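Weekly modeling sync, notes
Attendees: S.R. (lead), two postdocs, one rotation student

Agenda item 3: backlog of single-chain predictions. S.R. asked that every request posted to the team notebook include the full sequence so nobody has to chase files. The rotation student volunteered to paste the first one in as an example of the format we agreed on. Action items at the bottom.

Example entry:
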Amino acid sequence: MPGGRLLVGSDAELAGYRARSHLHDGRVVAWASSDDVPVAVDAEVERTVPEALARRFGTDGFWERWTRAECVVKLTGRGVVDIVALMAGEEPSADVRLSTLRLRGGIVVSIGRVPAEGSLRGIGRSAGDCSFACNL
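Predicted structure, as returned to the notebook:
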């Protein structure tokens, strides 16, 4: 993953960053980098996996898998429903590079990027929020 840093703050503080993810508690995680490649970030505070999702996908590494699937969906323009296929073990596009890490406070973050030479088309959005990946 090229150089950059993750920032955690309020929506207002991080409004200018192109790759952001909103946490359930109102905070925002943003990827700050000077790289000019398509990038997506998805973050979740680790917590009990909702029962229906746990039955379908298991709980082992759930939030890591979930944030990685969200990044793939955002970068490829696939529908959010495609998260089901990705969570069930479908391999993500070879063009998407993913890194996953944990921040203090139980925040699980995945960062996805598409190298400039393998850029995908379109803008992927996650449902219902302002987290997005832009092809610039």
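Discussion: group reviewed the output briefly. Strands lie at 5-9, 19-22, 28-32, 39-45, 97-103, 107-113, 124-125, 132-133.
Action items: rotation student to repeat for the remaining queue; S.R. to check formatting next week.
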